[in-house]
Amino acid sequence: MLDRLSSSQEDLESQELREDSHAPGCTRISECTDRQIVRVTGTLRTVTLRPRAGVPALEAELFDGTAPLDVVWLGRRSIVGIEPGRRLIASGRIAMSHGRRVLFNPKYELRPLGKE
After folding, report:
1. Are strands 100-104 and 68-74 parallel, antiparallel or unpaired?
2. CA–CA gap between residue 46 and residue 84 (Å, rounded)
3. How far is residue 69 from each of residues 29, 59, 60, 73, measured CA to CA in Å?
4. Tell me, what's the pLDDT at 1?
5. Average pLDDT per consecutive 10 residues, the chain (116 residues; last block may be shorter)
6. Tens digit of pLDDT for each residue in 74-87?
7. In whole angstroms, how far apart are CA 18 and each of 33, 69, 77, 83?
8. Separation of alpha carbons 81 and 102, rounded Å
9. Which residues have C-beta within 8 Å of that of residue 63, sequence separation ≥ 6?
10. Cα 76 to chain center, whole Å?
11. All residues at 6 or more sequence positions from 99 whose CB lies less than 8 Å from its CB, including other chains
């Protein structure tokens, strides 16, 4: 109890996300390796429209309390429900780009708002 009182809000949120990453069939982002097919869960920290090679790309950073993961939907300017603070489950093949884990065009499930 004393640890929870002395911890920062960010530490508490990271701990909660780490516990949630134990969802059935999900892998912690920190344990994902290049070219591995994974299913991960976490909270979207940022969502940005950033063109890649002249093609629109919606980029989001997913965080599960252990590590960040860039999620990129190529050819999309927006997706209903994809917004900062939203929890989701994403699956696909991990790629490494500039030292960061990336999922391109993943399958995803939005978590119900009541569960947040």
Report:
1. parallel
2. 5
3. 7, 10, 8, 13
4. 47
5. 55 62 81 96 95 92 95 96 95 95 97 66
6. 999 999 999 999 99
7. 18, 14, 30, 20
8. 20
9. 17, 29, 42, 43, 44, 45, 69
10. 17
11. none
Chain centroid to CA 17: 11
Please give the Cα distance from 49 to 98 (Å, whole number).
19
The pLDDT value given to residue 53: 85
CA dist., res. 92 & res. 106, Å (int)? 5
**DSSP one-letter string for the chain:** -HHHHHS-HHHHHHHHHHHHTTSTT---GGG--TT-EEEEEEEEEEEEE--BTTB-EEEEEEE-SS-EEEEEEET-S--TT--TT-EEEEEEEEEEETTEEEEES-EEEEPPGGG-
Q: State the pLDDT at residue 13.
A: 65
User: Residue 52's pLDDT is what?
Assistant: 83
Which of 50, 42, 53 has the alpha carbon at shortest distance from 19? 42
